[in-house]
Amino acid sequence: MAHYWSCPSIGTSDIFSTETPIYCYGAMPYSTYEDPWFKERVRVGSQFPRTGNRFAGFFAFTGLFTTPWGTYREYLQAELKEAMVPGESYCVEMYVSLSGQSGYACNNIGIVFNDDPFYIFDPHELPFTPQIINDDIISDSLGWVKIEGVFTATSPVKYLIIGNFYDDAHTNFEPFNIDIPLPQILLFDAYYFIDDVSVQRIIHGDFVFSGGTEVCKGDSAFVKAEIGTDNVMWYSLEDENTIIHTGRTLHSKPDTTTSYHVIARSCNAQIEDTVTVVVRPRPQIYLGNDTTICKGDPHHLDGGIGNVKYEWQDGSSSRFLSVKNTGIYSVITENEFACESLDTVAIVVAQIPTVDLGMDSFVCDEFVPLKVKPGDRTFLWSTGSTDSIFIPSKAGKYWVTVKNQCGESTDTITVYGVSDIFLPNVVTINQDNINEKFEIGGVSGLISPQLNIYNRWGDRIFSENKYDNTWPDDISIASGVYYFSLTIPGCSSFTGWIHVLH
């Protein structure tokens, strides 16, 4: 990350990236573009990063072309992830590559370690003696050259500075590309790229393993190998040539107990060991398939034998759970290895179905569908139909039987039509409670007709819009023959005579 780096002097070191747009100075590899001075001006170089997408660059030697201030140097400063431990030794590495557009190559590229950050408003070489230094002239512009060394901390060092800490008189150099004319060459100095700077404590002792060396089947294991360096590689015992993970922490998800070979390297030191991740079984539990039971029938869910802990959805903790109501039931079980399993089942509590076709009804012309509640049940009508809806085609008596796994119920309904209407022609008013009223037979209570009664001279002596079998309403009415007109609204009309006797 570039924001962890800084320039300790007024020298302008650079950051390059393969993700930067090609028209920016920091783009790598270089591209050509129109320039007021050069038709094709080449940038600092054409290298790719050694790893990743970014790397840095700086002037390490000014050659014969000095600045107004004389010798010019650029540096890079960075803060370590953690302070060095006094008395501990550290393996220091970095990779450098000479820019292909440089006019010179030089030596003396090195590293200085400080307890605190350093800043100075000066373009010259910094007043330090590097603890890590390369004495050879580096002229490789195609590959990356490793500079390495060992540094033993005497204080809690937290910062490093990279560059050439010597003036031109004490720097060895040689020409590079100076026979190439303009505009093919841009730089008349020694410009170097730098990548993969690493400071690792030199390892000693044994690994200290921590984390998930024992997991439940299906869980991920996080095993941490503390050894003082991040340069840790993990292998399976079945394939010692393939690295399955790098870094201090291994993340794995083995199906069975598995052993891993772990190796840590730092400079010339190497430590290796084997660690085993034990995979414990989970409890075996099966509450069964989703099912339907009948109300009142005993039904028990079994959390499984041999577990040390049970936790049902209602908070109960016994092995068995009695089910009485419809619902979703679940249990978490735990075995002796503290491994858990969860299972869930849906239970529907059913009962003998109820069926109600309603009251007997009167139909004039259009028959009303007879319906029963649909669902997980079977239907059988008196006509042989097996649907939940039945439309009668004529008046009559109908029944339906509804059945489920818990039992069956039956209901009957009578559908009356016009042909079922009976109109009496004799009324006897003798207080014997037999045939005392003009009572419409067959459909009594199912219709509310309009009734008018006339005497033999045509006078209307009784009228009611919703007749309910109450005439004669006066026991003093004279014996004789009367005439009636009865109308069922929207349906039929009837006329006739009635003989009243005392």
Compose a concise summary of this entry:
By secondary structure, the protein is an all-beta fold. It contains no helices and 37 strands.
Model description:
With 502 residues, the chain is an all-beta fold. Helix content is 0%, strand content 42%. The protein has no helices and 37 strands. The chain has strands at residues 5-6, 14-17, 54-61, 76-79, 89-98, 104-106, 109-114, 132-133, 145-152, 159-164, 173-175, 190-201, 208-211, 214-216, 221-226, 232-236, 239-246, 249-252, 258-266, 269-280, 291-294, 300-302, 309-312, 320-322, 327-334, 340-350, 361-362, 370-371, 378-381, 389-390, 396-404, 407-416, 426-428, 450-454, 460-464, 480-487, 493-501. The strands form 10 sheets. It has a 5-stranded antiparallel sheet, with no helix packed on it. A 5-stranded antiparallel sheet has the order 2-3-12-5-9, with no helix packed on it. A hairpin with a 2-residue loop joins β31 and β32 (407-416). It is elongated and about 155 Å long. It starts with a strand and ends with a strand. The model is unreliable at 35-41 (pLDDT under 50).
Low-pLDDT sequence parts: 35-41
What does the overall shape look like?
elongated
For the terminal residues, how far apart are their CA atoms? 119 Å
Count of helical segments? 0
Question: Radius of gyration, Cα only, in angstroms?
Answer: 51 Å
Percent of residues in helical segments?
under 10%
* Beta strands, count: 37
Largest sheet: 5 strands, antiparallel
SS-based class: mainly beta
Main sheet: strand order: 1-4-10-7-8
Strand content: 35-45%
**Would you tell me the overall average pLDDT?**
88
